[in-house]
Amino acid sequence: MDRVLTLAAIGEAMTGLLLLLIPGLVCAYLLGSDVTGSGVVLARITGMALIGLALACLPGPALLGMLVYGAFITIYLAWLGATQTATGPLLWPAVALHAVLTAGLAINFRQRRRTDAGT
User: Fold this and answer.
1) What DSSP state is assigned to residue 47?
2) Beta carbons of 99 and 81 less than 8 angstroms apart
3) Distance between CA atoms of 13 and 51, rounded to whole angstroms?
4) Tens digit of pLDDT for each residue in 11-31?
5) DSSP per position, 4-38
């Protein structure tokens, strides 16, 4: 079962990476239609989520998957706001919330690594 889970995680990570880098092409081949505007943003967010999910399914701490997703989404949303690609009223509160959660996850991840190294 571990092999199947690892294979599935690798497949999802690759799909996520492709959605992140070339969302239009993935949607064209997968769904048979183009993606534009906010659909590109949502496709990239989905790609980040798939990468986080894949990392959480690999052997090791699930915390790493959430940490990677949190960092990706914080940076991406902030970039969208900074370049004025997105200007919704909840964008910056979402950036702040993800930044705080990601910082908390990073602290927790570092503490766990120290604890594991000490035992």
Assistant:
1) H
2) no
3) 5
4) 999 999 999 999 999 999 988
5) HHHHHHHHHHHHHHHHHH-HHHHHHHHHSS---TH
> What's at 15, amino acid-wise?
T
Dihedral of CA 66/47/72/89: which sign?
A: negative
Structure confidence by residue, pLDDT tens digits, 51-104: 999 998 887 778 889 999 999 999 999 999 999 888 889 999 999 999 999 999
**102-103-108 Cα angle (round to 5):** 95
Dihedral (Cα; 52, 53, 58, 59), 10-degree rounding: 90
- Please, what is the Cα angle at 47 between 41 and 108, to 5 degrees? 110
Q: Please state, in angstroms and rounded to a whole number, the distance separating the CA atoms of residues 68 and 85.
A: 23
* CA dist., res. 1 & res. 28, Å (int): 32
| Nearest-angstrom CA–CA distance, 20 and 31 | 16
Global pTM reads 0.82
